[in-house]
Design brief:
- Helix content is 54%, strand content 10%.
- With 90 residues, the protein is mainly alpha-helical.
- A 3-stranded antiparallel sheet has the order 1-3-2.
- The relative contact order is 0.20.
Length: 90
């Protein structure tokens, strides 16, 4: 699904996601975290985040978290509804 996201947007989403992880303390609701990344993306100038692009970006953020889980940086609940940062600096 992330294939259709423009490369520049993908890089910005990755940067925002990694930066926001440094603010995580304890267990966090995945949906709230995704919403906060989307909100930050909207604040960035020059990005037209229409409904279709947002629909692609949301699962991409979860994909990033899943990749970080595989690396041991993030711990996710089995239902994926909550996660916590296990170590800083990915």
């Amino acid at each position: 699904m992330s294939i259709d996201i423009p490369e520049e947007i993908r890089r910005i989403v990755e940067e925002i996601t990694i930066n926001k992880l440094s603010d995580i303390k304890g267990k966090t609701e995945t949906l709230s975290f995704v919403d906060s990344v989307i909100e930050e993306l909207r604040k960035r100038g020059g990005i037209n985040l229409n409904d279709d692009l947002e629909a692609m970006v949301r699962p991409y953020i979860v994909d990033i978290l899943w990749t970080l889980r595989k690396r041991g940086t993030v711990s996710m609940d089995d239902d994926l509804l909550h996660f916590s940062v296990t170590k800083q600096g990915s």
